[in-house]
Write a structure and sequence with these properties.
5% of the residues lie in helices and 51% in strands. The chain is built from 2 helices and 32 strands. The structure holds 2-acetamido-2-deoxy-beta-D-glucopyranose (3 copies). The site of one 2-acetamido-2-deoxy-beta-D-glucopyranose has 6 residues, from loops. This is Putative polygalacturonase.
């Protein structure tokens, strides 16, 4: 349908084509227009490929001046393959209302490009909300393609001022959401769900991005709830329930001798429930760069595998004690309470360069296995130990 249907949320609603204006204080006017994918030929039957309809609706929403809304209506299921929503847009801000559900095809029905279901790139001031669900149908991949590269569900590339809320994702073949090269993103009231044995189904992967906020969300997957990778800074995660999964990780970094940096990561008031790790920093031997100014605070543990971990020998079967790695400093673990799965409570395995200014305080970790007492181990870790159970006699000054 050429041009689509422009509907206005305002009192001034005339027959199409209509121009509706919201008055701003300065007498400027902003046009508001909305675009429903159903008006662009989407079937919403869960079987037909609706990607072209989404693309046409997007082109209109993106190409119009002012504020525009893309509507994915409730009560429908849209099957998509390789959808790319590209900016830059003429619209000053775009709102995607994800009210209905989106489903990925089964493995053998994906198109050629099996990298992601939806990629959104170079779009500024994008807001996505609406309680819809993106279902990845990953089980066919996990069984037949355990060791191959599997697609992600949702990728954001170079999207500044992004806000995503009340969106549900499940069963991605690979990671659920990736955030790359963006500034100022917020993810709140998100719900991500995949089985604990699904391979590499991270909740979020962040790289090359700054000012990313996660709040009030539930993440249950087969890999990291959040993986904070190279080039990330000012990342806050608050009030998240993580588990099952591999915890919240900085890294891995420095693979193949790369120079990587991460700084200003603040994880607060989160729960790790049945995760294989809790608060973790992992770097490969031989890399350079740094990880600094990281805090994990007010963390509740429920049978967490390794509640507190620094591992600078990540990915090697035979750790080399003399190998250097990234410089880790100014890392605080404070206010941890609860149970570890077994005796491994605190493990600080730093490279030969040492980690510095590592602070442990107000920690009380008890093993949930009565046969294995909670313990701490360290290697080349320098810092300060406050009130901490179990004892950490291995910390160096
Ligand atoms: C996706 O999985 C759901 C159940 O998880 C199933 O009902 C549906 O048929 C699958 N869809 C496709 C397109 O394979
Ligand atoms: C992130 O957390 C830090 C430390 O708690 C805080 O100073 C900062 O204001 C937070 N930033 C955002 C955007 O919430
Ligand atoms: C943590 O968040 C919960 C809600 O998720 C709240 O009830 C609790 O008071 C918070 N705890 C701290 C220490 O901030």
């Amino acid at each position: 349908m050429q041009g689509g249907v422009i509907s206005c949320i305002l009192i001034l609603s005339f027959v199409s084509p209509c121009l509706c204006f919201t008055r701003l204080n300065f007498g400027l006017a902003i046009k508001e227009s909305s675009y429903n994918v159903m008006n662009y030929g989407a079937k919403g039957d869960g079987k037909s490929d609706d990607a072209n309809a989404f693309l046409s609706a997007w082109k209109n929403a993106c190409g119009v001046e002012g504020v525009s809304t893309l509507i994915i209506p409730k009560g429908k299921v849209f099957m998509l393959k390789d959808l790319e929503l590209k900016g830059p847009c003429k619209a000053t801000s775009i709102h995607i209302q994800l009210l209905g559900n989106i489903v990925a095809p089964n493995m053998d029905q994906w198109g050629k490009d099996k990298i992601r279901l939806i990629r959104i790139s170079n779009v500024k001031s994008l807001k996505i909300d609406g309680e819809g669900k993106i279902e990845g149908n990953g089980s066919s991949w996990w069984q037949k393609c355990r060791n191959c590269k599997r697609p992600r569900l949702l990728e954001f590339y170079a999207c500044n001022d992004l806000s995503v809320s009340y969106v549900n994702l499940a069963n991605s073949p690979g990671a659920h959401i990736s955030i790359n090269s963006g500034d100022r993103s917020r993810f709140v009231h998100m719900n991500i769900n995949a089985p604990s044995n699904s391979p590499n189904t991270d909740g979020f992967i962040i790289s090359g991005s700054r000012n990313v906020v996660f709040e009030d969300s539930t993440i249950a997957t087969g890999d990291d709830c959040i993986a904070i990778k190279a080039g990330s800074s000012y990342i806050n995660a608050t009030r998240l329930a993580c588990g099952p999964g591999h915890g919240i990780s900085v890294g891995s970094l420095g693979e193949n001798k790369r120079r990587d940096t991460v700084e200003e990561v603040h994880v607060k008031n989160c729960t790790f429930s049945g995760t294989t790790n809790g608060a973790r920093i992992k770097t490969w031997e031989g890399g350079s760069g740094y990880v600094r100014k990281v805090t994990f605070e007010d963390i509740k543990l429920i049978k967490t595998g390794y509640p507190i971990v620094i591992d600078q020998h990540y990915g090697t079967k035979n750790p080399n004690k003399n190998a250097g790695s990234l410089q880790i400093s100014e890392v605080t673990f404070k206010g941890f309470e609860g149970t570890s799965a077994d005796g491994r409570a605190i493990s600080l395995s730093c490279s030969s360069n040492g980690c510095f200014n590592i602070i442990l305080d107000q920690i009380n970790i008890v093993s949930s296995n009565p046969k294995m007492k909670a313990q701490a181990s360290c290697n080349n870790a320098h810092g300060r130990v406050g009130k901490v159970i179990p004892n950490v006699p291995c910390m160096l000054k």
